[in-house]
Amino acid sequence: MADSVDAELDAWIAAMPAGVDPQVEAARQRIARIGRQFEHVLRQAAAAYELTTGDWQALSVLHRSGRPHVLTPKELTDRLGVTSGTISVRLDRLERAGLVERIAAADGRSRPVRLTRKGHRKWSAATKRRTDSEHEIFSSALADAELAALNPLLRKVLARFEEEFGPAAKTDTLRTD
Questions:
Q1: Residue 172's closest CA among 90, 57, 94?
Q2: What pLDDT, in 10s, does the model give residues 52-61?
Q3: Which residue has the higher pLDDT, 22 or 109?
Q4: Which of 23, 42, 64, 148 has the highest CB neighbour number within 10 Å of its CB?
Q5: Taking the chain, what is the end-to-end CA distance rounded to the nearest angstrom?
Q6: SS3 string of 144-158?
């Protein structure tokens, strides 16, 4: 089965400097395009629950923080890799929707934000839709043994990149709202 990389690879390699390895270029292009497709799946899942990908990311970080699912705006800013202005707008929108609530701070400065039950339910539903869609795509493209073989190969590549450039970001930094 051919894909969009197959259709363009020969032309790319012909236009690139001598010595570019076509296998590496093809793998790089495929990984990048698959990453963009994962973003598309997430955008669709989030939109189905009236969330932006940025909303989904913020709710995810709060959810992963563990009970009681509370973080300061600064902690959210740091974990999401966004500006304080971006997080402020995002939190205002999530608060208006009843998905997060600001709680009193012990020091009276930055008011922490807590994931509400409604926020947890909406995040869970959108996440299930995302993971179900990804599972369907993987299971229709690969046999269980192929997926099991793919993960160790990807682990080796990621480990080598992290050896060269340091740990990869733990959260996705998608193009968001």
A1: 57
A2: 999 999 999 9
A3: 22
A4: 42
A5: 35
A6: HHHHHHHHHHHHHHH
Question: Residue 71: which H helix or E strand, with range?
Answer: strand 70-71
In the structure encoding, which two tokens stand for residue 115, read together? 């994931």
Distance CA 100, CA 96 (A): 8
Single out the residue of 131, 109, 37, 114 nearest to residue 71, CA to CA. Answer: 114
Helices and strands of the chain, counted as H and E runs? 7, 3
Which whole-number Å values give the CA distances from 119 to 67, 99, 102, 105, 140, in the listed order?
A: 14, 4, 13, 21, 32
Q: Which CATH class is domain 50-165?
A: mainly alpha
Q: Are 52 and 176 in contact (CB under 8 A)?
A: yes
pTM reported for the whole predicted model: 0.85
User: pLDDT-based confidence at 167, cuts 50/70/90?
Assistant: confident
Is residue 83 within 8 A of residue 77, CB to CB? The reply is yes
